[in-house]
């Protein structure tokens, strides 16, 4: 299968760091408890920048590092479930700000699996050869749908964005398998029908909620099976894979997946301690950090599996060569 090549990777985080100590002055919790249960020490929280603002910073960096002109971008895809508006899409706001006048742009909603879904969609457009340069950005500002009085959930989330410039490459590896299973066990951003005929009461599901224990089982079981499926598809073993970049939902989920795959935790990129769960942004932030810190280098042929799992429920993996 014709693969995709990551021509540039970038990420952007709001500058404000919110650590566990600060949260423990708002709700009944401690740094020790949060670290033990989640692996998170601190997260970045927006002081007003919205999802499109984070994405625009990522887009600008992608243009700068790749050296391509904005007019040469063919498509802008933003994976998010916390868009600024219902319309225009975040992708259209990014297109306008970058001056990507020849692109078409749209958002994709698949929660924490959004970036993996986005890479899959982009690969299909690249296959047509009609579209050559595609920006895929994953971004969420979860702080705007977080219940800051709920000590079980407000400790988990952070804001951020990450993305890549993708092009086709006949010599690059590509394999994928995506899934979804409609089930309301992770919910957020509900908008009730409220108009003069219904009465004006607000809905009860506005905040991001997840039933931790139930989705934990789902994440470990399905992410492990999903990675094994990619390995089977490609005739590879886990030892052939250089890095696994999982959605950063919880440190214990990543440890459990490594254990179930009977492989070293070292193979998994983990940065949840710094950023918490940034939903669609977590995988591209990790990818971008890996390029910046030298773990990944273009043209090395390293094999990487991205594995996302989240609300929907949605999950999926893609195998890429770098
Ligand atoms: S938890 O079940 O409460 N737990 C087990 C690791 C702590 C001891 C928990 C916590 Br805390 C945080 C996240 C999860 C979890 O399972 N998250 C997800 C699962 C599937 C898909 C997405 C997520 C997500 O949080 O993004 C469990």
Structure characterization notes:
This protein is 31% helix and 25% strand. The strands form 4 sheets. It has a 5-stranded mixed β-sheet with strand order 1-7-6-4-5, sandwiched between helices. It has a 4-stranded mixed β-sheet with strand order 8-13-12-11, with helices on both faces. A two-stranded antiparallel ribbon has the order 2-3. Helix 4 links the parallel strand 4 and strand 5. The relative contact order is 0.20. Ligand B82 binds next to helix 2, helix 6, helix 7 and strand 12.
Question: What is this structure's SSE topology?
Answer:
Layout lengths: L2 E10 L4 E3 H4 L7 H8 L3 E3 L6 H16 L8 E5 L10 H9 L5 E5 L5 H14 L6 E8 L17 E11 L4 E10 L2 E2 L21 E2 L1 H23 L8 E4 L4 H10 L11 H4 L6 H11 L10 E8 L1 E10 L1
Could you list some keywords that capture this structure?
binds ligand B82, five-stranded mixed β-sheet, alpha/beta, 13 strands, 9 helices, single chain, four-stranded mixed β-sheet, 322 residues
Instruction: Say how many strands there are.
Output: 13
Radius of gyration: 19 Å
> Main sheet, how many strands, which sense, barrel?
5 strands, mixed
The helix fraction, in percent, is 25-40%
Order of helices and strands: EEHHEHEHEHEEEEEHEHHHEE
Number of helices: 9
Which cofactor or ligand species appear?
ligand B82
Shape: globular
For the biggest β-sheet, the strand order reads 1-7-6-4-5
The secondary structure category is alpha/beta
Note poorly predicted spans: none
Tell me the β content. Answer: 25-35%
